[in-house]
Structure formats: structure tokens, C-alpha cells
């Protein structure tokens, strides 16, 4: 008879289904929203003494009535910068909701202490119940490990080291499914840190080119006045870009700090399970 090999048990952890639609749809909508704000709010006809009533994609309004409307004359780069700023807001909100949910309820350290207490009393079901109350990534990983923990208690075909390896493997698999959800879309924030400044620099340089070209063509004191106004308008690009990059940097650091705290809790939970099993079921 042919020798039959035991089939490996499938892991109890299932991949989380997630839609990546925000990753490609949000940037497009933010850029469109940036153009709408620039064209119809910053570029509203009533905000200029000499509006271009013919309209179009890029009306040539003159004489802005305030700093708010003067941003319109920063050029076509301004909608891109507004779009980048909207992206920072959108992805920050999305990450805040996701990471806040992954953090769960209550203190992670207190949760781990309760699990340790139940395991010390050999009450695995009570420890699993604590995971259901925690409702975060740490609780999810701990729950996966506890299920394997409970299974290994009654497993008679493996030695202690093999049981510990099985528990550790289950924890690692659960961790591998949790972490991508925490880090998803952070790349947009990290990219916008540099991209906002670079786009702003491009807009500033384009504005300076236009201003000096006007100075060369017209000449005289009037042209010097136009140059000063043009430089002021070009610097709006720089200000908007720096604001965008600064906000993106702050939010990126906040989220990475929160993720590091969750990751530390996950590592501590895995260590708790293996140490508890090794000391209780030698």
C-alpha cells in the first residue's frame, strides 16, 4: 500500500478583504476638487476688479480684491497644490479611522495583563473573551494565538518545542495579515511630504519667469511694480506647498508612531503566549 502523508492543517486566520478603490480614486477626485476650488472660488468673477467674463478653463482675471483671490493668479499649479492638500486631508482621515479601529478599546498593556492572569489560571476561554472585548489588532493576533494555544494543550503527538513553534507560527501569520492594513496608504502621505514642496517650487519658478518676462517686455517703473506683484503671487505657490508638506509630515509621523505602538503590543502578545505555554505546560 502507498504511504499516505498527513495533510497540513490550514491556518485559522483568513485574509481580510479590503477595497483599494480609495488608493486610485481619491487622488483623481482631489485634483478635480482642487481645480473646482481654484476656478470657481478663488477665481470667482466678483473677486476681481477686471474679471474675464468669457470664462473658460483659465480666465485671465485682473485686479484681485484680496489675498484670497490673489492666490488665483498663482497659475495653473495652484489647483495641483490644492489637490495635494485635499489628498493629505483625505488620507489622514482614512488612516485615522483605520488605525483608531486597529488600536481597539482600552489600554493594550492592561489587556495583556488580563490575558496573562487568565492563562496563569489555565482559563484559555476567558482569555479569548478578553480578546473579543479588545476589538483591535492586538486582540485579533492574540485571539489567533490563543486558539492555537488551546489546540496545543490537548495535542499529544508533539513535544513542547514543537507546540511552541506552532503557536509562534500562528501568531506570525496573524501579524502578517494585520500589519499591511495598518501601513496601507501611508505611502501617499510620505510622497506628499516631498511632492508638495516640489510642485510649489515649480509654480514659483513659472511665476518668476512670467514676471521677469513682463519686466523685459514693458520696462519702466510700471513694470517694476508689476514685477513685485508677480513675485508676490508666485510665492503663494511656495506657501501653499510648504503648508501641504508640513501637514503631510506631521500626520505621517503621528500615524507611524501609533502603528509602532500597535506593533509593540502584537510582539508582546506573542511573547506572552509562548512564555505562558512554556511555563504552564512543560
Please provide a written account of the structure.
- The chain is mainly α and 282 residues long.
- Helices cover 75% and strands 2% of the residues.
- The protein contains nine helices and two strands.
- Strands 1-2 form a two-stranded antiparallel ribbon.
- Helix 5 (124-134) packs antiparallel against helix 6 and helix 8 packs antiparallel against helix 9 (220-280).
- The longest helix has 61 residues, at 220-280.
- The two termini are 38 Å apart.
Provide a quick synopsis of the model.
With 282 residues, the protein is mainly alpha-helical.
**Relative strand content:** under 5%
Spatial separation of the terminal alpha carbons: 38 Å
Number of helices: 9
Largest sheet, spatial ordering of strands: 1-2
Properties at a glance:
75% helix, 2 strands, mainly alpha, disordered N terminus, 9 helices, 282 residues, rod-shaped, two-stranded antiparallel sheet, single chain
Sequence-ordered SSE layout with sheet pairings:
Blueprint: H1 21-42, E1 48-50, E2 62-64, H2 67-70, H3 77-103, H4 108-120, H5 124-134, H6 137-153, H7 160-183, H8 186-218, H9 220-280
Antiparallel strand pairs: 1-2
Amino acid at each position: 500500500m502507498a504511504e499516505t502523508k498527513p495533510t497540513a492543517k490550514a491556518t485559522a486566520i483568513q485574509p481580510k478583504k479590503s477595497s483599494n478603490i480609495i488608493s486610485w480614486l481619491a487622488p483623481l477626485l482631489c485634483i478635480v476638487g482642487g481645480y473646482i476650488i481654484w476656478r470657481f472660488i478663488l477665481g470667482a468673477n466678483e473677486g476681481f476688479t477686471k474679471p474675464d467674463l468669457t470664462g473658460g478653463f483659465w480666465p485671465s482675471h485682473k485686479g484681485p480684491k484680496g489675498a484670497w483671490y490673489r492666490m488665483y493668479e498663482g497659475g495653473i499649479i495652484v489647483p495641483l497644490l490644492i489637490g495635494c492638500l485635499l489628498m493629505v486631508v483625505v488620507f489622514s482621515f482614512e488612516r485615522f479611522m483605520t488605525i483608531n479601529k486597529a488600536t481597539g478599546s482600552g489600554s493594550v498593556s492592561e489587556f495583556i495583563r488580563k490575558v496573562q492572569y487568565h492563562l496563569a489560571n489555565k482559563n484559555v476561554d476567558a482569555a479569548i473573551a478578553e480578546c473579543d472585548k479588545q476589538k483591535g489588532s492586538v486582540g485579533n493576533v492574540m485571539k489567533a494565538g490563543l486558539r492555537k494555544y488551546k489546540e496545543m494543550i490537548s495535542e499529544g503527538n508533539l513535544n513542547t518545542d514543537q507546540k511552541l513553534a506552532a503557536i509562534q507560527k500562528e501568531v506570525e501569520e496573524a501579524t502578517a495579515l494585520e500589519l499591511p492594513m495598518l501601513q496601507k496608504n501611508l505611502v501617499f502621505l510620505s510622497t506628499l511630504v516631498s511632492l508638495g514642496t516640489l510642485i510649489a517650487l515649480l509654480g514659483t519658478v513659472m511665476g518668476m519667469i512670467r514676471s521677469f518676462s513682463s519686466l523685459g517686455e514693458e520696462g519702466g517703473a510700471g513694470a517694476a511694480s508689476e514685477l513685485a506683484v508677480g513675485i508676490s503671487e508666485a510665492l503663494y505657490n511656495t506657501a501653499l506647498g510648504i503648508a501641504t508638506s508640513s501637514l503631510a509630515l506631521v500626520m505621517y509621523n503621528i500615524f507611524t508612531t501609533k502603528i509602532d505602538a500597535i506593533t509593540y503590543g502584537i510582539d508582546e502578545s506573542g511573547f506572552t503566549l509562548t512564555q505562558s505555554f512554556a511555563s504552564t505546560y512543560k
